[in-house]
Design a protein that fits this description.
- There is one protein chain.
- The chain is of the alpha/beta class and 475 residues long.
- It folds into two domains: 23-41 and 378-459, no CATH class; 63-372 and 467-473, Purple Acid Phosphatase, chain A, domain 2 (4-Layer Sandwich).
- Helices cover 37% and strands 17% of the residues.
- The protein has helices at residues 23-31, 36-50, 99-107, 115-129, 146-161, 196-202, 204-208, 255-270, 290-293, 302-312, 382-405, 410-429, 436-448, 450-459, and strands spanning 74-80, 91-92, 133-136, 165-168, 181-184, 187-190, 213-214, 221-226, 229-234, 274-279, 316-319, 326-332, 335-341, 351-358, 361-368, 470-473.
- The strands form three sheets. A seven-stranded mixed β-sheet has the order 7-8-9-10-11-13-12. The protein has a six-stranded mixed β-sheet with strand order 4-3-1-14-15-16. It has a three-stranded mixed β-sheet with strand order 2-5-6, covered by helices on one side.
- Strand 9, helix 8 and strand 10 form a beta-alpha-beta unit.
- Helix 1 packs antiparallel against helix 14 (450-459), helix 12 packs parallel to helix 14 and helix 13 (436-448) runs antiparallel to helix 14.
- The longest helix has 24 residues, at 382-405.
């Protein structure tokens, strides 16, 4: 039997819940010679899965206050997450091909080299669509370089000038990050990083100056973009704890911040306001057992905090962090909360969202960036290049991980790696649908290792709502 061990803060958010697999996988595991402790772990995860079942929705309308402020009975919101913007000045003397930058990509492969043209393409579309509100759910920059934050604030000003109200919240990469560097030839050199105060100053026009309340213990705040709607922007990053190695993935809501959030929820309730929240980290699990199997991407103590927030009336939260386009739900005391996670602009398939809020519910649609103004190796189009970039890095990562971290024999690791790569890319894209040919390959893997086959099947198993285009109605 292959020993199962998870590396915390793994670059690719290594999904390996065994609980969410289909009944056939349960059967194969149950009939195998599995260690009783591992079987108990699978059972406990299955109980966690039950917390994600669907329940009638109950979200109050916001339009008794006049809709978008002009009497229109709908509101358009855009969601962009994990931009990881890297200012072009941070790559000089062919730094993108240099040893230091390539080493960075090998440890954390993201399309940051192309983050400028990618975001400009999205900005062009947002200007055309002209939503009422744009929510940016963290990891605005590659690693918190001040020059990158300042450039992003400039882009947001362009939207503000045409009437789009932009609200930001920091992610784990954005503040006090010692990885803030420029790449010059084969070398990397530190550049100015962004402090907590810098962040609030740079983005003063995008949540902080016009907040109706700010949490004194974090960069959380409350905005009221239109009458009847409040947005609670929750800062869950641990940047006060960062050291010379840079950021950490894990997040938490401080006790004092939770108290402040509850007071804001009560204030909104007293004034008959609808509340949407946004946060970089996931509030709830997006697959059963995520917080134990891949720690760092769901907030600490998530169940107790989620129960508290659901009891307080929270029903919708927009998140990012995991680079996956996924919608999951959670039921507590008969009340349902939806965590609408948006993928990253530097990870294929490069998604961002539009949400139309009407009197009957939320219509969620996803767009993927397919074309950008840049040249790519081999004359490839951007869509093909971005998928190929991720696929090639994942192949090497999983081959190494399975052999060195999970102890799989070389032949088994070589066979399983492409299956893991395909599974996690499907999870990133959302609305996973397992092809029959892939299923046949996973069945072959099951004959060699039921545990690895169960993990791969989990990557293809969507336990939540439809991920890319979904309608969340009011009851």
């Amino acid at each position: 039997m292959v020993a199962l061990k998870l590396k915390p803060n793994s670059t690719f958010h290594f999904l390996y819940s065994i609980a969410a697999v289909k009944t056939t996988i349960y059967s194969s595991l149950k009939t195998s010679n599995m260690n009783p402790r591992l079987w108990l772990f699978v059972f406990l995860l299955s109980q966690s899965f039950l917390s994600c079942v669907k329940d009638p929705r109950n979200l109050p309308p916001i339009f008794s206050h006049g809709g978008d402020g002009n009497g229109n009975k709908q509101l358009k919101i855009s969601i962009i997450s994990d931009i990881h913007y890297m200012h072009p000045s941070l790559l000089i003397n062919n730094g993108a091909a240099g040893a230091a930058f390539q080493n960075y990509l090998n440890q954390d492969p993201k399309l940051v080299q192309y983050s400028d043209p990618i975001f400009r393409k999205v900005l062009e579309d947002v200007k055309k669509e002209k939503p009422d509100i744009l929510l940016i759910t963290g990891d605005i920059t590659k690693d918190g370089e001040k020059v990158s934050h300042q450039a992003m604030a400039g882009f947001f000003q362009e939207l503000r000038r045409i009437g789009v109200k932009v609200y930001v919240v920091p992610g784990n990469h954005d503040i006090n990050n010692a990885k803030a560097k420029k790449f010059d030839g084969d070398n990397a050199y530190p550049v100015d990083m962004t402090s907590k105060n810098d962040f609030a100053t740079i983005y003063s026009d995008f949540g902080y100056n016009n907040a109706i309340s700010r949490d004194p213990n974090s960069l959380s705040y409350v905005a009221q973009p239109i009458p009847g709607l409040r947005i609670i922007a929750i800062d869950a990053s641990k940047y006060e704890e960062y050291g010379p190695e840079g950021d950490v993935a894990a997040g938490r809501i401080k006790p004092q911040t939770l108290t402040w959030i509850l007071a804001q929820m009560e204030s909104a309730k007293q004034q008959h306001n609808t509340v949407f929240a946004m946060m970089h980290h996931n509030l709830i699990e997006h697959y059963a057992g995520q917080s134990q199997l891949d720690p760092g991407y769901v907030i600490d103590d998530w169940q107790n905090i989620t129960n508290t927030l659901v009891d307080a009336g929270l029903k919708i939260i927009f998140t990012g962090h995991y680079h996956a386009n996924d919608i999951s739900s959670y039921v507590h005391n008969g009340k349902q909360l939806f965590d609408i996670e948006t993928g990253s602009l530097v990870t294929a398939p490069i998604p961002y969202r539009y949400v139309t809020v009407t009197e009957t519910g939320l219509q969620i649609t996803t767009k993927n960036v397919q074309v950008v103004d840049a040249a790519f190796p081999g004359g490839l189009g951007f869509g093909d290049y971005s998928s190929q970039f991720l696929s090639q890095h994942l192949d090497g990562y999983f081959n190494y991980y399975l052999a060195n971290n999970l102890g799989a024999p070389a032949e088994l690791a070589g066979f399983a790696s492409p299956l893991f790569r395909n599974g996690i890319m499907a999870h990133f894209a959302g609305d996973e649908l397992l092809p029959s040919a892939e299923s046949a390959q996973i069945n072959q893997l099951a004959a060699l290792s039921p545990q690895l086959a169960g993990i791969v099947t989990t990557l293809w198993t969507d336990i939540g709502e439809k991920d890319n285009n979904s309608f969340i109605p009011y009851r």
